[in-house]
Amino acid sequence: MKSVKDNAVKGIHAAQLSGVDFVFQFDWDAREELEKRFNGATSVFGMCGDLNNLIYTAVVGLKRHHPDMTEEKLKEIAPPVVALQAAVMKALQYAYFGPKHPEEAAAEAEGTKKKAPLLKRFTRWLSKLALDRLTSGT
Question: CA 84 → CA 8, 39, 111, 121, 126, distances in Å?
């Protein structure tokens, strides 16, 4: 598979988990499948704590770039749960909010973009840095 980089505009998140390169993308069809299963978009974000739902959601996000991936195959690869959850949540964030943080995207949609306090921006930056390192395998 050719190397794929993150593309927040297209909702693509590439991650290496357990030595395997994965490309997650929650396109419109994938989002529709998840929203039907979990009764709406807000439920999609809340369900990633349940392992069965996490595996299901991950497989849906992998379908476009890994059409042969199944829940059983993903369980055999056995990626760390927290790393898998972080990769899925990052791809979902891209799919629903694009390249911006969800709060920024919502404020921009309302036309009232406000700059977050310095501590909040620093915490967000630090969280992003940790998430990037966790999902990049470094």
Answer: 18, 22, 34, 25, 19
Residue 83 near residue 135 (C-beta atoms within 8 A): yes
* H/E run at residue 47: none
Q: What is the value of pTM for the model shown?
A: 0.69
Looking at the DSSP bridge assignments, the partners of residue 16 are 21
Distance CA(23)–CA(66), nearest Å, equals 8
**Reduced to 3 states, what is the DSSP secondary structure of residue 24?**
strand
Percentages (nearest 5) of helix, strand, coil residues in the chain:
60, 10, 30
- pLDDT digit string, tens, across residues 22-46: 999 998 999 899 888 888 766 666 6
Neighbours of 53 (CB within 10 A): 17
pLDDT at 25: 93
User: Is pLDDT of 111 > 80?
Assistant: no
